[in-house]
Amino acid sequence: MPDLRTPPRPLVPAVRIPVRFTGPGAGVGELAWGQREIWLTMQRQRSWLPIGGWSRLAPGTTLADVADELRWMLRRYPTMRTRLRFAPDGRPLQSVADRGTVGLDVYDCPDGADPEAYVVALDARDRARPYDLVEEWPIRMAVVRHRGVPSHLSTVMPHLVTDGLGGRIFLAEVAARADADPDTGTPPLEQARWQAGPAGQRQNASAVRHWQRTIARIPAPSAATSGPHLRGEFRTTALPLAVHALSERADADSSQVLMTLLAQALPGDGPAVLRPMVSNRFRRGFGRVVAMVAQRGLCAADVAGLPFAEALQRVGAAAMAAYKYAYVDPDAVAAAFAAAGADPDAGLWCNDRRVATRQGFAGAVPDAGAVRAAPPGTFRWTVAQDDPFDPLSVDIDDGDGGALLLTVFTDAARLPAAGAEALVRRVESLAVQQVEELS
Question: Which end of the chain is less packed: N or C, by CB atoms within 10 Å?
Fold first, then answer.
């Protein structure tokens, strides 16, 4: 494990290799809906929302190999050569280039230092540095050399480039680029043209009607919130065991089970309002595209006091509508909230980001004894800041050792720290309790 207590300094590139690229699909146009939504999130959170990471390079990898890989990526994925432009009224536009030159930075790790610690520090530095989305190409790639040999790679991009599933597609295609499918899906410029046309406007009008009906069930905004904004992590082994058992018993998708538990765990009266992150990749042309096509949905379900089985059905029906109508113009959604005088930040924002267990759990279905024997989850607060996260949000990821990791974000003026921790702990306790009741 690298020593991260004292990152190596200074982080100054030894050389910058100019990488020239070309690619099809150039033009300037409106942001597609997915791009527009993540742009609004970036503004709200005052962050360019860096994505990417670092990796070890395969032995024998040369700087020319990395430069060729970067050139291939820029040619294949239009979003990696897309920068912002602004209309006279301040509206952001996407500008896709058909050629250009990007810098590949090369850093020399000092002899005697740990190259892994060096690339970790470099990756963190590149995430923290401001990003000029108008002038910079939307990719920062850097190679770390150790004793003259390329050993590690850091790649950082703004979230405007792609969503999480697109990121996994990009990594898989880069790893096997000689065999990559030529079909890359519908790029955002084409998406935006369709969205502005008759079919896109019909889709938007239908989606807005769903949002208006659901917004009518949301209470008016409470007093203005002011933070602090907190981030915490809840690691639980009992919850995945219980969700496995419940999803098998009910013959229901595990995401539906988790959404139902979240809905029942929410404090307060009235319908449980959920804002799931929806992958729009089931739509034509979106399956393989490396772009931001995920958007927030909206659903509301009355689950207070209901048996779990009935709550599961109600949340499932509401979620299906949310998935169908998450493909929508974010500006039209904002207008619908404003017209209704409803809280645009209402509800629990949730994002099921699991990979390993999203399509099903491995192994035998746990019985009540195994679920009951699992220790309670552990919780810790990790960040407190002035800049906002999403108002009240839970991300769900696969953790180590068969655990689930629930990351909770809250504006403490909206839901205090104790209430946010109680929310995720109640999800676990409700799941365990339900398995025991069904045994």
Answer: N
For residues 28 and 82, give the distance between their C-alpha atoms in angstroms, rounded to a whole number.
9
Interatomic CA distance for residues 70 and 435, integer angstroms: 50
Q: Phi first, then psi: give them for residue 389, nearest 5 degrees.
A: -95, -165
Cα–Cα distance measured from residue 310 to residue 260, given in angstroms and rounded to the nearest whole number? 10
pLDDT tens for residues 380-403?
A: 999 999 989 888 999 999 999 999
Left (φ > 0), alpha (ψ -120 to 50) or beta: where does 49 sit? left
Q: Which residue has the tokens 């905004």?
A: 221
Give the DSSP per-residue string, 328-397: S-HHHHHHHHHHHT--TT-SEEEEE--STTTT---SSPP-HHHHHHSPPPEEEEEEEESS---SEEEEEE
| Cβ proximity of 396 and 424 under 8 Å | no
> What is the spatial distance between Cα 12 and Cα 223, in angstroms, rounded to a whole number?
47
pLDDT at 6 over 70: no
Burial of 118 (0-12, 13-18, 19+ CB in 10 A): buried
CATH class of 222-438: alpha beta
- Alpha-carbon torsion, ordered 298, 301, 307, 310, to 10 deg: -80
pTM above the 0.90 mark?
A: yes
253, HSE (Cβ side, Cα atoms, 13 Å): 13
Asked if 425 contacts 234 with a C-beta cutoff of 8 angstroms, the reply is yes
* β-pair type (295-296, 272-278): antiparallel
Distance CA 352, CA 368 (A): 25
Tell which residue, 429, 432, 380, 388, has the closest CA to residue 406.
380
What residue ranges do the domains of the chain occupy?
15-193, 222-438
Q: Which residues contact 379 (CB under 8 A, 6 or more apart)?
A: 232, 233, 234, 235, 421, 424, 425
Mean pLDDT, range 71-75, rounded to an integer: 96
Radius of gyration of the chain (CA): 23
Element (H, E) at 192: helix 188-196
Strands 392-398 and 140-146: unpaired
What is the C-alpha separation between 185 and 364, in angstroms, rounded?
Answer: 38
Q: Helix, strand, or coil here: 108?
A: strand
**Domain 15-193 bears CATH identifier 3.30.559.10:** yes
pLDDT at 290 over 70: yes
Token match 């970067």: residue?
70
Q: Element (H or E) spanning 104, and its range?
A: strand 99-109
